[in-house]
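$ ./design --mode recover --in tokens.txt
reading tokens...
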């Protein structure tokens, strides 16, 4: 039975197969398919990796790219095998 009446302000959508539009505030979903692209101000990742299923990853920024590794090592890998490393060495 459909809901009849004024929609509460804190409800964005319920039981929706697909939605098109602009969202503000927190949006929670198991996955998001954004064929037109996604623009975000900040990204926080709760897991341990950014994993692309195919293609290249390009970082294009107007400023610096900062890699901050607390272990003093930045590893370069291909297929999980190390092939290079930057190491902070005070000597």
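writing sequence...
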């Amino acid at each position: 039975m459909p809901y009849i009446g004024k929609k509460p302000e804190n409800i964005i959508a319920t039981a929706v197969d697909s939605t098109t539009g602009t969202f503000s505030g927190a949006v929670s979903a198991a996955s998001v398919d954004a064929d037109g692209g996604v623009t975000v101000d900040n990204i926080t990742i709760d897991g341990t990796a950014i994993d692309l299923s195919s293609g290249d990853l390009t970082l294009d920024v107007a400023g610096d790219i900062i890699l901050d590794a607390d272990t003093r090592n930045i590893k370069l890998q291909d297929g999980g095998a190390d092939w290079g490393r930057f190491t902070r060495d005070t000597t």
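exit 0
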